[in-house]
């Protein structure tokens, strides 16, 4: 997946959306489990995940959030995640930009689902 495919019309290509849906469905929870304690935006990240998985979420919104979630999952980064303190700064910035673009579509039900998932000591394996 190329980095330039995270923005613009290319991000809404049905093949790319399908590829990202598969990636997020398979890799989101395992990745989150590894890093949740080190990132301050976990709640927003999980709410975005539940918004993407909601069948009522418009495709344009899904495409935007999938780009942010895929960026979080992918091993490449502008700032490598293994760097203490700043490693997830770019992931957070990408997520916050995506969330601000689609804020009206992150519903209370998505935030409740995120809070419930994060309060579970055995965070879910899949949505």
UniProtKB/TrEMBL annotation:
DUF1232 domain mapped to chain residues: 62-96
Superkingdom of the organism of origin: Bacteria
Subcellular location: Endomembrane system
Gene Ontology terms: cellular component: endomembrane system
Keyword annotations of the record: Membrane, Transmembrane, Transmembrane helix
Annotated transmembrane regions: 59-76
Pfam families: DUF1232
Name of the protein described by the UniProt record: DUF1232 domain-containing protein
Organism, as annotated: Lutibaculum baratangense AMV1
């Amino acid at each position: 997946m190329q980095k330039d495919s995270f923005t613009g019309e290319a991000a809404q290509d049905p093949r790319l959306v399908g590829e990202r849906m598969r990636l997020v469905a398979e890799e989101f929870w395992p990745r989150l489990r590894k890093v949740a304690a080190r990132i301050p935006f976990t709640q927003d990240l999980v709410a975005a995940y539940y918004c993407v998985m909601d069948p009522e979420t418009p495709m344009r919104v899904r495409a935007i959030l999938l780009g942010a979630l895929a960026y979080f999952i992918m091993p490449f980064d502008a700032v490598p995640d293994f760097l203490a303190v700043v490693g997830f700064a770019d992931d957070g910035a990408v997520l916050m930009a995506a969330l601000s673009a689609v804020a009206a579509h992150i519903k209370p039900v998505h935030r409740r689902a995120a809070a419930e998932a994060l309060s579970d000591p055995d965070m879910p394996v899949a949505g």
